[in-house]
Amino acid sequence: MGIVNAWNALWEPNPRAIKPRRKREYAGAEVSRLTSGWVTSTNSADSDIKGSLKKLRNRSRQLVRDQDYCKNAVRVIVENVAGTGPRLQAQVRMARGGRLNERLNQQIESAFKRWGYAENCDVAGKLCYSDLIRNAVAAWVESGEVFIRIVRGQKFGDSSVAMGLQLLEADMIDEDYEGKAERKGWHWKMGVLQDEWGKPKKYALLTRHPGDTFFVNQPTDGKKHIFIDAKDIIHLAKFERPGQTRGVPWMASAIQRMHHLEGYEQAEIVRARASSALMAWIQTPEGDLEGDDVVDDERVFDMQPGAIKYLGSGESVHVPDLNAPDGQFEPFLRAMLRALSASLGISYSTLSRDSSQSNYSSSRLDVLQDQESFKALQAQLREIVLFRVYKEWLEIAVLSGALQLPNYQTEPERYQQARFMFKSAGWVDPFKECQSNKLAVESGFKLQSQVLAEQGIDYEEFLVARKNEIDLAKQLGLDFSDKPNTSPETASKVDTTTNPQEDDET
């Protein structure tokens, strides 16, 4: 029986062998020796932001303040997004025919331009409208968000429009405030009162900047907070996760890299200075401490080029090898700047101003990609800030009598139509770009107005200026075509009796 049992056991199915295998998980979720130190969380967007926001803002500002690369990064984004400031183009059309009403549009644009002077639009009277927008974009990048307060009912400067703007740094909205909600379902989160849908209702505005520690005697009304209605606040931020309340500095993911780059640069500078400093040491037989580097019987060494130091008896100098391998710093620098450019969403060549490793094709590709990124940011700026400010200003201008717009109260949408023109993007190769646009217009793939709009030029203004230019050229008998104009008509307009000497004097 023993042999039979052994034979049966040999051919009996192995339960362990036929046990169904565990369903395979994602490799990215696998826990192993290599991923044991990978700490993650299931926090919400605001929970992740809350504990790090102040430190991220302060570190980002320090890098922009002290490091050339980060400072230039902010400058590049401001120049390409805001440029010299957006230019308003009112788009009011005729009630019949749909043509643009040039008279009303000119009236609106002139009034808005006058209001845009620093003493009229800025409550502090420091920034004109274009500079205010540029500063807002800079704070948007550096701090991750910026707030613009609309102050109604008060005239600033000599403007007849009772409205001004106040630019608020992100610190002014107290992210630590947690007060009592006014209604059921509402709640305070990071200084913002939200309804049950997460829509902002009020903002907890500090009466004094939390960093104004050197100006404790600054006058206040005794309150720490004032609560501003959401209709009076424009919040410009990049919300990258659903439910996110506050913005995060754009350089957040590259902050540590740029800090290490700063330290690496300093170390390289010290090494280069030390390795280039030619020094000599003199050892005396008596062993007495002599020389200018002796203070209170203690030797103080200052590594200066050309210095001569005295050593006592038995003393020796050990100088470490300061000759680092050549060509290591520049590749490391490029790698760090590529990380920074990826964090900001712009190309390395645009950020670093380094085109040594680029050709026409790669440069054009970088320019096209950057233009798309900048257009997206301009669209966000246009929708959140520019249209909002323009609509508020237009309504107050009509109510105050600064603008006379027929039937505005019954059809405000007709008057609120507008465009905002930004500066044109540069061309990598003007000749090729011009030829490409010319071919696209002639083939019908592009409108001439579209080509001009890409260059920041108003189409109607261009046509008027072009007509005036052609009329003046004809009046003077000039022809700027490729071939010289030798027609009898043009020749007859030239005064051949004029004294050449008088022409020179003229």
Structure description:
The chain is α+β, with helices and mostly antiparallel strands and 506 residues long. Among the domains are: 267-352, no CATH class; 429-506, no CATH class. Helices cover 43% and strands 11% of the residues. The protein is built from 18 helices and 13 strands. It has helices spanning 2-11, 15-18, 45-50, 53-66, 68-81, 102-115, 118-121, 129-143, 255-276, 329-344, 348-352, 360-399, 412-416, 430-443, 448-454, 459-475, 488-493, 500-505; strands at residues 87-90, 145-152, 163-168, 187-189, 192-194, 200-206, 225-229, 233-237, 280-283, 294-295, 298-299, 308-311, 418-421. The strands form five sheets. A four-stranded antiparallel beta sheet has the order 4-5-6-7, with no helix packed on it. It has a three-stranded antiparallel beta sheet with strand order 3-2-8. Helix 5 (68-81) packs across helix 8 and helix 9 packs antiparallel against helix 10 (329-344). The longest helix has 40 residues, at 360-399. It is globular, with a radius of gyration of 35 Å. Mean pLDDT is 81; it is low at 484-506.
Topology of this protein?
Layout: H1 2-11, H2 15-18, H3 45-50, H4 53-66, H5 68-81, E1 87-90, H6 102-115, H7 118-121, H8 129-143, E2 145-152, E3 163-168, E4 187-189, E5 192-194, E6 200-206, E7 225-229, E8 233-237, H9 255-276, E9 280-283, E10 294-295, E11 298-299, E12 308-311, H10 329-344, H11 348-352, H12 360-399, H13 412-416, E13 418-421, H14 430-443, H15 448-454, H16 459-475, H17 488-493, H18 500-505
Parallel strand pairs: 9-12
Antiparallel strand pairs: 1-13, 2-3, 2-8, 4-5, 5-6, 6-7, 10-11
Helix pairs in contact: 4-5, 5-8, 9-10
